[in-house]
Amino acid sequence: MRTDSSPGTLPAREHLPAAAAGTPVLDVVIPVYNEEKDLQPCVRRLHEHLTRTFPYAFRITIADNASTDTTPQVSRRLEAEIAEVRAFRLEQKGRGRALRAVWSASDAPILAYMDVDLSTDLNALLPLVAPLISGHSDLAIGSRLARSSRVVRGPKREFISRSYNLILRGSLQARFSDAQCGFKAIRRDVAQALLPMVEDTGWFFDTEMLVIAERAGLRIHEVPVDWVDDPDSTVHIVKTATEDLKGVWRVGKALASGSLPLDRIARPFGDDPRDREIKDVPKGLARQLVGFCVVGGLSTLFYLLLYSGFRTFSGSQVANALALLVSAVANTAANRRLTFGVRGSGGAVRHQAQGLVVFGIGLALTSGSLAALDAAGGDPAHSTELAVLIVANLAATVLRFLLFRAWVFPERRESTLVASHTPGRPPHPPLPMRAGGHHFTYDDQFRAGEAADRTWGDATMQLQPVRPTDTDPRDAR
């Protein structure tokens, strides 16, 4: 059975219901800093596109990052002219800070953001949010590096982008393809649990959010996008790259030390097919034997390759010990996750220590076999050594499985825990609105340090597709 330390705190991932109109389904945030020139055409173009193509109610929120030009005035003018536009003013810079503040205050069940330059083709917006509305995914990102993406940008930006994502894959084992594309969406219930764990307030905010979400087992949907580079971009590449590398180091250290409470946003997330009782699918001992045999076969091949490599510059005993040590660590990690279903970092060090004890027993068996072979035959051929080691490893494998099952990963008989909303907890307080309008102002209510301790509400969103017959007295369309 599974030995997760916590069943998670997120609700089941479900299709958003279509009911009475009211709360917008989608809230698209546009973070801006001194964008007086591009803001108005961007918002009008986005509003026209959503009005024409998006089947639900929506909102566009302008998040002004302490602009010093006329951006605040442009924002307020757009808010006054277009019913679906809201203006949000922050007195501190930082794209991550802006997204955290607006997303935390929003009542829309789907939250998204895009850059003001609209480098990404807006036709990708509906495919981006559709998996979140349906309940299929938890986050969605646009990818400029997918095979079917069509991207126009210079070699410098291309090199930097691909190098950065290669660093993420190598250092943080990220599997998503494009961390920095300014075109992302997230379900509100996921954001409420995830945002308090994200520390960065700048450009690394996206990457940190995605890495934590992926490590917690959330589903990230990627959408190939058409993207045209903005030659007038105000991003300082060197400074941003330096801050990003610092962020990679900080997040990597937190993941390695286990200081991130990933169980807050871990499964269950609805009906997990791995928990179902399905006919002819091996369970219990049979399932573990199947998994152990697969891992064991791959580990044996890995071990033999290592032994052959180490044997070229060392004796048979040293090569055997080194090959067994490396393959044992990999074998324990693989069996922990795949055979015995242990997820999360809890107990990983103890499991590896116990695995090394099992490794010592296997080392004794295989080393004893080699010693017996040397004593019997003088200088045996390499093929003979391999044959003896295969037989010895088979015996060690049977013993390893028994020890893993009975000692390292024993089956725990525990009552099932169910995560649910605790009645009586107050919902997250909304940010104040100015009398006579809907212009949000950012005060000191929301801070990243306080967010981790904040209790969130879980109100159900009521949604309804916008049809041609629907009317809104504020809207002339």
UniProtKB/TrEMBL annotation:
GO molecular function, one term: dolichyl-phosphate beta-glucosyltransferase activity
Keyword DNA-binding (UniProt): no
Ranges for region Disordered: 457-477
Domain Glycosyltransferase 2-like positions: 28-194
UniProt GO BP: polysaccharide biosynthetic process; protein N-linked glycosylation
Span of domain GtrA/DPMS transmembrane: 292-409
Pathway: Protein modification; protein glycosylation
Subcellular location: Endoplasmic reticulum membrane; Membrane
One Gene Ontology CC term in the entry: membrane
Transmembrane segments: 289-310, 355-373, 385-403
Pfam family, one: GtrA_DPMS_TM
Protein name: dolichyl-phosphate beta-glucosyltransferase
Organism: Streptomyces aquilus
